[in-house]
Amino acid sequence: MTYFGFLALFIGIPLAILAVLHWRDARRGKHLPPSLATWQPAFVIGAHVLVALIYTTPWDNYLVATRVWWYDPALVTGIVFGWVPLEEYTFFVIQTILTGMFYIYLARRLAPSASDTPSSPGQARSLRIGGAAMAGAIWIGSIVLLASGWAPGTYLGLEIVWAFPPIILQLAFGADIIWRYRRLVFFTLLPATFYLCGADALAIGSGTWTIDPAQSTGITVGILPLEEIVFFLLTNTLIVFGTTLVLAQESQTRAPQSVIDWMARLSSKPAHAQSQTDPTLHKA
Q1: pLDDT range class, residue 121, cuts 50, 70, 90
Q2: CA–CA separation, 68 and 180 (whole Å)
Q3: Separation CA 145–CA 150 (nearest Å)
Q4: What is the C-alpha to C-alpha distance for residues 55 and 43, in angstroms, rounded to an integer?
Q5: Is the Cβ–Cβ distance between 228 and 197 less than 8 Å?
Q6: Residue 81: helix, strand or coil by DSSP?
Q7: Least enclosed by CB within 10 Å: which of 64, 65, 192, 242?
Q8: 8 A C-beta contact, residue 150 and residue 213
């Protein structure tokens, strides 16, 4: 299976299905709940695509350059930027779009209730501090793992070292907001991760790309290495947490006004266009 063939089959088809579902929602007048209607979804997904490209490119180039994983030259176009083929950059983009579109589709159907909100500002702060501290401890542990020089922990350690700094920031900023939307987060994150893991297993089985057994733990689910499961869980977490925090009304009261104004200039929707107020909101 060529890399572009994999992308067309396992990402292109679900994207087409989601496009039809979004079109049908638009025809039926189904919109995001007021608490998530602060920015245009296309703008938010596009911003995440840009961040994914910028943040992932150096890390993924390092993985390929150090042979943590490699691809079959016969199954790609041969167009390479750095050490990584064009198809891999395409994957960064369309995975972000796929998970983002799935999130938006579910967000129109899984609005939170008042009971989903932390009961007090103190509880909200505890969620933010505790969530960031736990993620920070895992990140430090991954640094120790890499520093130990244990080769089988290389890929796993590199994944956590790369992904956890933005996750720590997301939790420190809005773990309580993520908790409020936990049903939406869960029902986006789990199916998207399972689906991409299944597709990845087929690609590995067909030889489209290969994970270095010397730099991975050897723990597998079927033929799928543990590290690939962790990769899709982490990347989808970044997308889902980020989308939740950017869209949520609560975030607009916490983010610096300069950031809100900058986003407003980039987006076709004014920063304060959302005039409806969600009665379940609690400032923390």
Answers
A1: confident
A2: 38
A3: 7
A4: 18
A5: yes
A6: strand
A7: 65
A8: no
Give residue 22's Cα distance to chain centre: 20
* CB proximity list for 265: less than 8 A, separation 6 or greater: none
DSSP 264-275: HHHSSS-TT---
Tokens of 109: 């159907």
| CA gap 35, 245 in Å, rounded | 11
| pLDDT tens digits, one per residue of 124-154 | 999 999 999 999 999 999 999 999 999 999 9
120: left (phi over 0), alpha (psi -120 to 50) or beta: beta
Query: What percentage of the chain exceeds 90 in pLDDT?
Result: 83
Relative orientation angle of helices 226-247 and 182-205, to the nearest 10 degrees: 150
100, 239 Cβ separation under 8 angstroms: yes
SS3 helix, strand, coil % of the chain, rounded to 5? 70, 5, 25
Q: What is the pLDDT of residues 173-206, one digit of tens each?
A: 999 999 999 999 999 999 999 999 999 999 999 8
